[in-house]
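Researcher: Go.
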Amino acid sequence: MRPEYLQWVVNVQPSTSPGYLMRIMRQQTSEKIFAEFSRLKKENPSGDFWAPGYLIMGGSRPHPPQLVRDYIRQTRTRQGQENS
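Model: Structure:
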């Protein structure tokens, strides 16, 4: 866990859809976060704690922090939240 992002390394069956996995992880973690911090739930009626988008990469080790920061920066730029 880093201040600017959370990175999971998971091992799933090859038949598991990445989109399905992310949907379940987002739903379950959002529910737990909102249950613990009700103020956040009131401020976010979407029911999803997480920002749109996610990065999935293969491998069994965490990826370089700079690579992840670049992805976050590019995503925020596309969303109009940061300057290029």
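Model: Residues 17-50 form one domain.
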